[in-house]
Amino acid sequence: MNEVIVEFINYLTQTKNYSAHTAIAYETDIRDFIKFYENFISADVFVKDLSRVDTIAFRSWLADRQKRDLSHKSTARALSSVRGFYKFLARNYGIKNDAIGLISSPKVPRKLSKAIEVSDVEHMHDAIKEIDATEPWIAARDWALVLLIFGCGLRISEALSLKNTDIVNRPDSLRILGKGSKERIVPILPAVLDAIDKYIKVRPFGNAPEDELFRSVRGLPMSARMAEKVVEKLRHYLQLPDYVTPHALRHTFATALLAGGADLRSLQELLGHSSLSTTQLYTKVNMSEIMNIYEHAHPMAHDKSED
User: Fold this and answer.
1) What pLDDT sits at residue 305?
2) What are the chain's domains?
3) Has 155 been annotated as catalytic?
4) What pLDDT is stored for residue 19 in this prediction?
5) What band does 145 get if pLDDT is binned at 50, 70 and 90?
6) Cα separation of 219 and 271, whole Å?
7) CA 174 to the chain's CA centroid
8) What number of CA atoms fall less than 13 Å from residue 5's CA on the CB side?
9) Are strands 173-177 and 183-187 parallel, antiparallel or unpaired?
10) In this structure, what are the phi and psi dihedrals at residue 270, rounded to the nearest 5 degrees?
11) Catalytic site residue 184?
12) Region 130-153 average pLDDT
């Protein structure tokens, strides 16, 4: 069984180009199901046994996850992982199971994170200067990162994947490789480029053309967790609500563009959403809030550089 699971994970990363993080999630979900089924039938499970799993066993697994207080979202993802594994088994090993197609996925409430308050955005730059007062280059890096996510609507992983070559000669757009290795073009604002330029001028390392743009204090490529901590420090320093996250910066970018008249299809392309229904969630935000954000906080409304 272990060899087949490893083969499936390699297929996801090497053929489907899934990220390591996504592949690990798939493996965790599949092993969770296998472990449950072994306990359910009180026997070791071999690959051929998976064709005999019935609806009672599948539903019992979902019920067991609920007893463990795992969220509907987590369980929906786990069921999707197991379904993907079964498709792989059918294609590569001729092992089919019709029962899993009869199992409904848990309903997951669709939530949209809140936009950041205008005054909070305005205070972030000075807060970063105070937090990183002893390391001016770190302050410059953190502000460039925050402004890049906020000004271009990037995911953390997309911002951190940028290399020095991507911003040579101050381009007017960025070529972003997003989820599922889908490429898109995103405009980059002068205010964002100004912040990046200031960061590069004081950065002590990572200046080779192919180096990642954002570096850690030790000179290594900055990790997603490090980027999250940047916003966490800001949130704690400014005593902001828990919803102030890097994703909230991306969300505020989206609501600001809607306020500026962007249509949903254009916004879908800019955000890299695979489904228009995901983008349509942004229309549920109060329009007066959107207008306030656009007119007072978004770099698109005020093309001014920060010292």
Assistant:
1) 47
2) 2-102 (1.10.150.130), 118-296 (1.10.443.10)
3) yes
4) 76
5) very high
6) 29
7) 18
8) 20
9) antiparallel
10) -65, -35
11) no
12) 87
- The residue count for the chain: 307
Residue tagged active-site, from 250, 251, 294, 298: 250
- Predicted local distance difference test score (pLDDT) of residue 238: 80
**Residue 83 annotated as catalytic:** no
Tell me if 227 sits within 8 A of 176, measured CB to CB: no
CB 137 within 8 A of CB 206: no
> Are 190 and 196 a contacting pair, CB within 8 Å?
no
Q: Which two tokens stand for residue 220?
A: 């290594």
Q: What is the pLDDT of residues 220-235, one digit of tens each?
A: 999 989 988 988 888 8
- What pLDDT shows up at residue 182? 72
Return the bridge partners of 177, or none. 183
Element holding 207 (H helix, E strand): none
d(CA 289, CA 195): 26
Instruction: Please pick, among 26, 37, 282, 294, the residue that the annotation labels catalytic.
Output: 282
* DSSP 3-state of 282: helix
Taking the C-alpha atoms of residue 114 and residue 88, their distance in angstroms, rounded to an integer, is 38
Calpha distance 293→116 (Å, rounded): 8
CA-CA-CA-CA dihedral for 9, 13, 14, 18, to nearest 10: 140
Name residues whose C-beta falls within 8 Å of residue 275's C-beta, 6 or more positions apart in sequence. none
198 is catalytic: no
Q: What share of the chain is helix, strand, coil (3-state, %, to 5)?
A: 65, 5, 35
87 is catalytic: no
User: Which of 297 and 249 is assigned the larger pLDDT?
Assistant: 249
Identify any residues that bridge with 221 across adjacent strands, giving them in sequence order: 215
Give yes or no: 179 in active site.
yes
DSSP 285: S
